[in-house]
Amino acid sequence: MSHFSLSRRAVLAGAATTLAAPAILSQAVSVRAEAPLTGASSGSFNRIKLGDFEVTTLLDGHRASDGPHPIFGQNQEADAVAALMEENFLPPNRTEFVFTPVVVNTGSELVLFDTGLGGDAGSLTQQLAAAGYSPEQIDIVVITHMHPDHIGGLMTGGNPTFPNARYVTGQSEYDFWSGEDKLTGPTERVAKLVQSNVTPLADKMTFIGDDTDVVTGITGIDTAGHTPGHMSFHLESAGQRLLIWGDVANHFVASIQRPDWHVRFDMDKEKAAATRKRVFDMVSADKIPVTGYHMPFPAIGYIDTRGGGYSWLPATYQFSV
Ligand SMILES: [Zn+2]
User: Fold this and answer.
1) Is residue 319 part of a domain?
2) What is the tens place of the pLDDT at every residue in 223-237?
3) Are 4 and 74 found together in one domain?
4) CA 102 to chain centre
């Protein structure tokens, strides 16, 4: 007997029960029909305990678009990318981008990693409020790299969004984007945003390099490739660890199962691929959880190496038991 006929029998048994109570059934249908459709929805913040820290991921926004090819798998045939998506139960030609800043409460500082899209597209301050924080409470804003979806929320109407914060970012990242020569050509759009959103805050900024502490328990790691000075941040509290990897990998299937595939937004394609594999090897060896800015919300998971390659394993109750 197949599973299909087993489950079909169960459905028929259920139908018989329902038919035995026709009055209740019609009442339930008419009540349900009056509830308005409210649109697809998911939570906007997710908090875990990590040792003595609390780590909150916040959904700043999401956008559906065509893809993932040719943004991901830029050097591959469209069919190869579509086939990988279908193998993973995803639509072949549509994808979604999410943007996930992170707040870490160390117990003595409130540290925000990246600031979302800003403007009308971003909702970080609303999500912070939902999570119980105000912009005034943020002590330190850490910027993984200076692409617009990470620095867009630094300013609101020309003023700092986080009025009491100091800032931390990579020295090489700031040096690259603040160069006068970047204001024309392919870097123009981002460099202009850096001029309006980052440069005015430079006197409150600490510029760091590889293996530099932001505060006790939070260490910057050089993960360049996506951008010239991209940084990730390793958290450790009471023996628990987590890596905030920013944009090391930006599609949970394409970039993780095929780390060598070129990604349009990686400024140095080969270096970004090498960085991905180095970071995947590091976190998988010690089963370190990861939060990634563009991973599916709540954007916390692990790199699984069973079966030879890499894959994304979403976290579930590891932090609550
Ligand atoms: Zn990004």
Assistant:
1) no
2) 999 999 999 999 999
3) no
4) 9
pLDDT digits (tens, 9 = 90+) for 185-206: 999 999 999 999 999 999 999 9
CA of 289 to the centre of ligand 1 (A): 19
Statement to judge: residues 18 and 162 lie in one domain: no
Same domain, 5 and 85: no
183 C-alpha to center of ligand 1: Å? 20
Residue 231 Cα, ligand 1 centroid: separation in angstroms? 12
Distance 247 CA to ligand 1 centre (A): 5
Domain count, the chain: 2
Please state, in angstroms and rounded to a whole number, the distance separating the CA atoms of residues 108 and 98: 29
Task: Return residues with CB closer than 5 A to ligand 1 (ion).
Answer: 149, 247
Q: What number of CA atoms fall less than 13 Å from residue 153's CA on the CB side?
A: 27
* 277 — pLDDT class (breaks 50, 70, 90): very high
In whole angstroms, what is the distance from residue 210 CA to residue 219 CA?
9
The range of the structural domain enclosing residue 202 comes to 42-314
**Intra-chain end-to-end CA distance of the chain, in Å:** 40
Ligand 1 centroid–CA 287 distance in Å is 24
